[in-house]
From TrEMBL:
It comes from Streptomyces pratisoli. Keywords: Glutamine amidotransferase. This is Type 1 glutamine amidotransferase domain-containing protein.
Amino acid sequence: MSKILIVMSAADVWVRTDGSRYPTGYWAEELAAPHEKFVEAGYTVDFASPGGVLQPLDQHSADPAIAGEDCAHYVAHAEKALRDFGPLLKLDEVDIDDYVAIVLPGGHGPVVDLFEDSDLGRLLIEADKAGKLIGAVCHGPAALLSAVDEDGRWIFAGREMAAFTDEEEQLFGTAEGAPWLLASRLRELGAAHSGGPAYQQYNVQDGNLFTGQNPASSARMAEDMITALA
């Protein structure tokens, strides 16, 4: 049975420019919706993170006023999936040859640790070189920044992608004091970033790279990947 790897951040706080600590964690829909789609399509899904650390749930993603009326379903599915899987795999022990795809969900964690994680960078470079599918949604595309080759080149420069927009960060109330804004950073480093209306589903495919702008884009990202895998 083919396997897909979901890589989570290990961060539980996002340190702001004023030194304050903003609690973070995985965003339920961004983890649960793809997991649900992949399992329904017959794939086995593994979870990994830096050091095998289990990141907490971002409580904003359990608030219907913020995350929508379906959030309770996504929270329950994510918690069960993680509980059933057991201890997360350690990124430095993962062999990308075991997987047909790698997926990077959001929450703010990826802008804290995954964007500069060398083990993840190695896996992404190997995955891209082998033509494996790579998916990233919301703040997950920050993790793509880790894929810098031995010549210092970011391998995703020039690629078309979506990610949580600066406008969405501002509307969410986390733009002011952020060390850097994801969409701006992606463009600065050479990505062909595009976006749609705030908090509406918007997805981009560029070859083996599948990206989504926000939580509402999570399920579509997985569906597009499943279609491509088939």
